[in-house]
Amino acid sequence: MNNRSLISINDYSKEEILQVLKTAEEFEANPRQKILKNHVIASLFFEPSTRTRLSFESAINQLGGRIIGFTDASSSSVKKGESLRDTIETVSLYSDLIVMRHPLEGSARFASEINDTPVINAGDGANQHPTQCLLDLYSIKQTQNRLDNLDIALVGDLKYGRTVHSLVIAMSMFKNIRFHLVSPIELKLPRSIKDFIVANGHSYKQYTDISAVINNIDILYMTRIQQERFADQLEYERVKNSYVLENSMLDNSRDNLRILHPMPRVNEIDENVDSNKKAHYFQQAQNGVFVRQALLATILGLR
Amino acid sequence: MENKKTELKVSALENGTVIDHIPAGHVLQVMRILNLENFEDQIYFGANLDSKKYGKKGIIKVTNRFFKDVEINKISLVAPTATLIEIRDFDVTKKSGVNIPDTVEGFAKCINPKCITNHQQITTKFYVTDKVDLKMKCHYCEKITKKDDVEFL
User: Fold this and answer.
1) What is the mean pLDDT of residues B54-77?
2) CA-to-CA distance for A280 and A257, rounded, in angstroms?
3) pLDDT for A33-83, tens place per residue?
4) CA dihedral in degrees (B119, B124, B129, B134; nearest 10)?
5) Within this chain, do residues A157 and A111 fall inside the same structural domain, yes or no?
């Protein structure tokens, strides 16, 4: 996998994914290895991000690498009308690897094909966000010790949620996954992805309420429901509380249940859940550093 | 004898190309894709003609014009059943069908308004995922463009 860009989770085989997760375990045990001390990494954020950018920068810093870049396009020559091709051509001359977030879909694939400098896609619009997907997989494996034979509930906006789609597709590489899909009727998982689940030998059930499923699952993957997704605002008001997790709802859940969330959360997980040992979303955010360290090391041929 | 008057009479081509078996309703689109609207020599075209094979069909006869495969690839997306007949000195010199290519590069537009190819100077590229009911996946944004949504650059 040396010198290979990561643009879409679909670019990696199951074996390559497992190898990255294994490497991430090494960085979790020892995140401060100065293996990037002779490297310059470009961090190009054409739109703002908190967690993704900071965890990349933390990953790079902890490995002793240097970072150049910008945190939003207004402070770069993009504002003067420079093409993405020219920006990437130039930045390639200054760096060994480019981490890039861009609002337009397909921008990362395009950037990765301009020259040989590897690109890690840190999100291209609503299309792909593969490092998020890998850290979700890492968090599931970390908490359940396996990626096969799991009951996974996905809650919230399953129609537009990019992380949900990628996670379902990636989990479908493993064996015997039972997906429990909890969403308002208007935000159900798209048909094409449900067909994908079945075509890969897994099963799914659909629900409109978390309580219907909460006692029978290993992973509860929460996502935010955005008000603007509803054509009918009354409908939003009616359903929004069905997708809020309270601590008391976890009383009869499985011991091994862990709660994940790609963050940021707004109100879909009550703060009273945070102290429950089943809450794992902050560790999940921390795992983003280890997974990104593993990717940087792998792509630069240092692992 | 009366029946013969109902048939379309056009003079035979001396040199040129006949594009036959165009799906009814796509003749003008094929004209546009091949940029025949600006062609200056003679063109005959007919739409909704009777076809034994397809019920209704369209046909275009272009004088003194021959097409390269790459040009014909373009019409395969809207007229996969089309037949090409090349005529030189009143003789048929070549007869061929059109093939939907596995990849479509440079002439179709991605349906996704947020696709990078619709914002910067980038040659579009698609992978054809369904040749029967045309579906193409964008190499860049990974969105599917379907037959009815195909626009040409």
Assistant:
1) 90
2) 10
3) 999 999 999 999 999 888 999 999 999 999 999 999 999 888 777 878 899
4) 90
5) no
User: What is the longest distance spanned by two Cα atoms in chain A?
Assistant: 58
Q: How far is A111 from chain B (nearest CA, A)?
A: 10
Q: Helix, strand, or coil here: B38?
A: helix
Q: Which residue in the list A23, A39, A52, A102 is annotated as catalytic? A: A52
Residues of chain B with C-beta less than 8 angstroms from the C-beta of A47 = none
Check whether domain B12-97 has CATH 3.40.50.720, yes or no: no
Q: Which residue has the tokens 């290895």?
A: A33
Could you report the per-residue pLDDT of A158-200, keeping only the tens digit for each?
A: 998 889 999 999 999 999 999 999 999 989 999 999 999 999 9
- Does domain B103-152 bear CATH number 2.30.30.20? yes
- Same domain, yes or no, for A92 and A223? no
B17-41 confidence digits (pLDDT tens): 999 999 988 899 899 889 898 899 9
Active site residue A52: yes
Contact A105 B141 (CB under 8 A): yes
Query: Chain A to chain B, count of Cβ pairs less than 8 Å apart?
Result: 49
Q: How far is A22 from chain B (nearest CA, A)?
A: 29
Using a CB–CB cut-off of 8 Å, the residues of A that contact B are 8, 83-85, 102-107, 109-110, 124-128
Domain parsing of chain B, residue ranges? 12-97, 103-152
* CATH label of the domain that carries residue A168: 3.40.50.1370
Residue A76 shares a structural domain with residue A210 = no
How much is the ipTM here?
Answer: 0.90
Number of domains in chain A: 2
CB distance A6 to A295 below 8 Å: yes
pTM to 2 decimal places: 0.88
Q: Beta strands of A132-202 (E only): which ranges?
A: 150-155, 177-182
